[in-house]
Design goal:
- Helix content is 29%, strand content 28%.
- It is of the alpha+beta class and 506 residues long.
- It has 3 domains: 271 residues, Zn peptidases (Aminopeptidase); 39 residues, no CATH class; 121 residues, no CATH class.
- The strands form 5 sheets. An 8-stranded mixed sheet has the order 1-2-4-3-5-11-7-8, sandwiched between helices.
- The radius of gyration is 24 Å and the shape is globular.
- The N terminus is likely disordered.
Length: 506
């Protein structure tokens, strides 16, 4: 794979970006300076941002973390003149390239930063405080692989937060609590099952939104009914076909919308009632092939996204702030959905998508009857007062700490009404076309004692839904099914984490 570092040194990039004092500077991106479809290295990206900042002074740049191999992960902040007081503007966070072999978002982020900094696309800053993380996975990018240098898929780490890269994003997110977020990806169009059928996907540019049923319906409806249709219309003149993000394992498999998992960069923020989205652009046959056009479509889509939220900033901010107030006041639904999957909708029995016939290169539209667009939750649990986590469960404690979830360590025994789970059985099955552990439990309630040294995690905090999802043994997206914690699901044993129904001294 060709990279800009093989074609241009950081110094030559800066020299190329020089400008006459009497005329506005021109600041081409490394991709624009290149002679063909090549990718920008991390070093050249950083040289570009440093020079752009020096030339324009239009943004601040902060290192929010470092990758496994020590590369800085940076966040750029753009805000309009006057720097209004905190809380007055809509906060929008965009981050790209969680997957190292999906580089078009990073290339688009550089062009976007340049365009905003040069004043070509800065109108939205009057209404929006904008944060941009152009590259989350620099090591994976340099190694031309999806995962990070420790072989973790970063977009499956937003629950345990094992990786320094996702920890950096989570730390930034927690400090900002953005009203709107966008995670920029690419999808592979030439999967093995498609190629065997003589086809490539031709799904266009795709967008998904928060889909977990525990997220507020008002935000889900706004995303589906207002944002997505408007963006699709706005992008037609830009020659970008925007569709709702579809997932299928092959041309003969069922079709559904994207996952409800809380461990990704879209539904993860939704537990804090962020209006969160992802973009899936079409990848190339190779990582760098057609990168210019791929980056162009990403750039136009992100610009349309930002323009929509600038135009509707007051409405969106009021809506998200209202839902956040419910979080702060613990005014939440009494139950939390733990197990869910996509099911058919009688009103929409089929879906259309495009394919390209490999032999002829012709595009076709296919109608698929096996369409499952609705999320159905099949297991709910009452939201408890809190949970008791034994002090010896250091792995669980570490995850709570990484999320900034508040807990207290009990110094003296406390009487409480507690519920305990007994694991009656665990059966491997399938949900959302992925492996899933169906856990059967029995529940006992008794007057018991919270022992000194135990941790108490109260549910009356902003992370309430995340806490319940994380700590319940039957939870599809909880900690228990993960390899580090699956031993807690041993049949015939008591699940070590107990639910608090009430405490005698509170």
């Amino acid at each position: 794979m060709l990279r800009m570092s093989k074609l241009l040194t950081a110094g030559s990039i800066i020299f190329s970006l020089g400008f006459a004092a009497c005329s506005p500077p021109e600041v081409p991106t490394p991709l624009e300076l290149a002679g063909g479809d090549v990718l920008t290295s991390h070093a050249d990206m950083m040289a570009f941002f440093n020079h752009l900042q020096e030339v324009t002074g239009a943004f601040s740049m902060e290192t929010i973390g470092t990758s496994v191999q020590g590369r800085p992960i940076v966040s750029l902040r753009f805000s309009g003149p006057g720097e209004p007081a905190d809380g007055e503007k809509l906060k929008v966070l965009v981050f790209a390239q969680q997957h190292g072999n999906e580089p078009s978002g990073k290339e688009a982020a550089m062009a976007l930063a340049r365009d905003i900094a040069m004043g070509d696309f800065d109108e939205f800053l009057e209404a929006v405080d904008f944060y941009l993380v152009p590259q989350v996975n620099p090591d994976g990018s340099e190694m031309e692989q999806r995962r990070n240098a420790d072989d973790f898929d970063l977009n499956r780490d937003h629950l345990p937060l094992y990786t320094p890269e996702v920890q950096a994003i989570q730390s930034l997110y927690s400090s900002l609590l953005p009203h709107v977020s966008l995670d920029v990806h690419e999808y592979g169009f030439a999967g093995s099952s498609w190629v065997e059928a003589g086809l490539h996907k031709n799904f266009g540019h795709q967008i998904g939104a928060l889909s977990n049923p525990n997220s507020p319906e008002s935000l889900r409806r706004f995303a589906w009914d207002r944002v997505m249709p408007q963006l699709a219309v706005d992008l037609v003149p830009k020659d970008v076909e925007l569709n709702r993000y579809l997932l299928t394992d092959g041309p003969d498999a069922r079709v559904r919308y994207s996952t409800t998992a809380l461990n990704d960069g879209r539904n993860g923020p939704a537990v804090y009632h962020t209006l969160s989205f992802l973009i899936e652009g079409e990848n190339g046959i190779t990582v760098e092939s057609n990168i210019r056009e791929r980056a162009r479509k990403q750039l136009e889509t992100i610009k349309a996204f930002l323009s929509f939220f600038a135009e509707n900033a007051d409405e969106v901010k009021a809506m998200v702030d209202h839902e956040r107030e419910a979080l702060a006041n613990n005014d939440l639904p009494p139950q939390v959905a733990l197990v869910m999957d996509y099911v058919p909708d009688p009103a929409r029995p089929s879906v259309e998508y495009g394919v390209t016939v490999i032999e002829t290169g012709q595009t076709e539209t296919r109608v698929v009857e096996d369409f499952h667009p609705l999320v159905e939750a099949t297991l709910w649990v009452d939201r408890p007062m809190g949970y008791v986590v034994p002090g010896g469960l250091t792995g669980v404690t570490a995850v709570l700490e990484r999320h900034g979830i508040q807990f207290e360590r009990v110094e003296a025994p406390r009487s409480a009404t507690l519920e305990a789970y007994r694991i009656e059985g665990v059966e491997p099955t399938i949900k959302e076309d992925k492996d899933f552990l169906a856990v059967d439990v029995s529940v006992t309630r008794e007057e018991g004692t919270i022992q000194a040294g135990d941790l108490v995690v109260w549910c009356d905090q902003m992370a309430s839904t995340l806490i319940v999802t994380m700590l319940e043994p039957q939870s599809q997206w909880g900690l228990a099914p993960l390899p580090e914690f699956v031993s807690m699901l041993e049949p015939g044993t008591e699940f070590p984490i107990r639910r608090i129904v009430s405490v005698s001294d509170q």
